[in-house]
Amino acid sequence: TIFLNNYRKIQQERYENGEIKLNTLKQKAAPLRVFDERFGTRPLDAITVKDVVSVLEEYKARGHNRMGQIFRKVLIDVFREAQQTGDVPPGFNPAESAKKPQVRISRQRLTFDEWMMIYNAAEKDGYFLQRGMLLALMTGQRLSDICKMQFSDIRDGYLHVEQQKTGTRIAIPLALR
User: Whole domain around residue 167: which residue ranges?
Assistant: First the structure.
């Protein structure tokens, strides 16, 4: 729809103004593409709850409930923006009425023996990987933050980190041995 192009521009402006992060902007691209492929020729106010649910059920059938959640969340935002611009009547948001897909968290933690096996196998890839693993273990930082760390981030006995995801700044004492 024409509105989706406007929505993309709105999101780009929000990113440029620092209201949303780059990853948030990127995360919206795939759901918007799916929405455009499925419903692009129809007016926004002709989209029904049943239409939204049909896409969510396709995600569920493929075992992609998390992507279904993201699709629904992006559509809720699309229809809210459309309400703001008058492209749909106030309160019209079929995505909000669609039931949120349930996602069962299935994270598994490594045992120490499993971690050591990976650590020892990483030796052949050079010392950088092993040092990164130790740094992650000691600091509890995300992979993206570990990859960004530099020796110049060490000042006054602390490792200074600005987390990419949240922008939070922290100082980790080096005396943690």
Answer: 112-173
